[in-house]
Amino acid sequence: xxxxxxxxxxxxxxxxxxxxxxEVSGVRRxxxxxxxxxxxxxxxxxxxxxxxxxxxxxDEREADVTLDQIRKLGRTYDEELxxxxxxxxx
Length: 90
Fold this sequence. Notes:
five-stranded antiparallel beta sheet, alpha+beta, globular, 2 helices, 5 strands, single chain
């Protein structure tokens, strides 16, 4: 199963190429923010990440609630986090 997982932007890696580093449960990965090019993103913003792309901006409360619910899925959360760790846009 593939879910979107909330990630916090910790660094804008390349604004021109729409690349940002996000952190999910202590794991950092570079993702594409190109799908949100009309919404400039900044460090501290939360996004819903799916297969290396920021799909939408979400607020911190929504991120917390979503992460809590995903964690309750147990193995599904572990699989999603594993997929996140293996996916990187370079």
